[in-house]
Specification:
Length: 375
């Protein structure tokens, strides 16, 4: 067994003992108890998005999808857009580019609107592109672009998409559960997130919160069998079951994670802890001389990108490996142009854990002979 390490990453994340403990059961995938858990998970996820339950007049449905977050995005992209449709992808990082890539694989006509990785997507620019282009039926954007940690203005972009009559798809993978999202106010048609990000479950499945009318339109549009979003939903509606083997243990863990989210005070309670983590991180990193990539006003409390310091003895691979030996996992960067690394402040972590990481960083830098990263 490997030793316990704290994950300062964009996911999978550190989880609580009770979340891990919830997996010490073998649930039958068609058993009544298990199906009850699946039903409660679907209802609670809608509540987090501010939507009423479907049987209570709500306009949204929750569809669980096996696999990592990318599978659920691909489920939406490959199921929601008709053969004659056209997708506009708003890109300011690697996750936006990934959506473009999957649309191309499915031979979906696609346009991209690229923004620099250190800039938020401008609703005005989106409005202009939608007005200038012909035939765009769908628009997709990433909420927190985990490449940098920047948060795009999804409500304003949603209003613009709505104005142009485009179906609106939001990848809220690394934000849902930690940054408040009101589905209706955001005018989102399909929002995607996963089990192992801010809800603090373990990997194994992802979920889509979809407007029912849009979901119904997706009937018979799917380009794959296993990622057919409509069929997956219809399966849940008919017998409460996943169409194919569900990640039973991950679902049990997730239900526990949802209870813990509620006990923490919901999204606002969780946001407060993550914000405190982030504040502790920024203070400590600045103290060591590390420079954040984003301007402070664009920086989220989810994950932070730091530039490699110019000190000749700083080697990221070495820095990262030594921290790992001490029980702390940080993450490489994902920027196209600049060498950088990332530190996440999400998951079952609190400010004392961040302080512990900072202390080890100072020790490792000293061992590497990097007295000050700015030297
Ligand atoms: C984590 C993440 C994904 C999905 O990644 P998987 O590795 O497939 O779980 C997609 N978009 C964003 C913004 C993410 O942070």
């Amino acid at each position: 067994m490997t030793s316990r390490k704290l994950l300062f990453t964009p996911g999978p994340l550190t989880t609580s003992a009770a979340v891990k403990g919830a997996m010490l059961h073998d649930a039958g995938s068609r058993d009544r108890d298990f199906l009850g858990t699946v039903r409660k998970i679907r209802e609670r996820l809608l509540t987090i998005g501010g939507a009423a339950a479907p049987n209570n007049g709500g306009a949204y449905e929750c569809v669980l999808v096996q696999g990592s977050g990318t599978f659920a995005i691909e489920s939406v992209i490959s199921s929601a857009i008709p053969r004659e449709g056209k997708l506009l992808v708003l890109v300011n990082g690697a996750y936006g580019r990934r959506i473009t890539q999957m649309a191309r694989i499915h031979a979906i006509e696609t346009e991209t609107l690229e923004t620099a990785e250190n800039r938020k997507i401008s609703p005005k620019a989106v409005e202009e592109r939608l007005a200038a282009s012909h035939g765009i039926t769908h628009a997709a954007v990433v909420h927190c672009e985990t490449t940098t940690g920047i948060v795009n203005p999804i409500e304003e972009i949603g209003a613009v998409a709505k104005g142009a009559g485009a179906v609106y798809i939001v990848d809220a993978m690394s934000s849902f559960g930690a940054i408040p999202v009101d589905l209706a106010a955001t005018r989102v048609d399909f929002l995607i997130s996963s089990a192992n990000k801010c809800i603090e479950g373990v990997p194994g499945f992802a979920f889509v919160l979809a407007r029912r009318d849009r979901l119904l339109e997706a009937k018979c549009r799917a380009r794959t069998l296993s990622l057919d979003l409509y069929a997956q939903w219809a399966g849940f509606e008919s017998d409460g079951q996943f169409r194919f083997t569900p990640p039973t243990h991950a679902l049990l863990a997730f239900y526990q994670a949802l209870l813990e989210l509620e006990m923490e005070g919901g999204v606002s309670g969780r946001a407060a802890r993550y914000r405190a983590n982030h504040t502790a991180l920024m203070g400590g990193m600045a103290g060591m001389g590390f420079e954040a990539y984003l301007a402070p006003e664009d920086q989220s409390y989810i994950i932070t990108t730091f530039r490699y310091p110019s000190h000749p003895r700083f080697r990221f691979e070495d820095f990262c490996a030594r921290l790992s030996e001490l029980g702390f996992i940080i993450y490489p960067g994902k920027l196209t142009a600049e060498p950088c690394f990332r530190v996440g402040t999400i998951g079952q972590l609190s400010p004392p854990d961040v302080e512990a990481l900072l202390k080890k960083m100072r020790r490792v830098l000293e061992e590497m002979g990097v007295a000050s990263v700015t030297a």
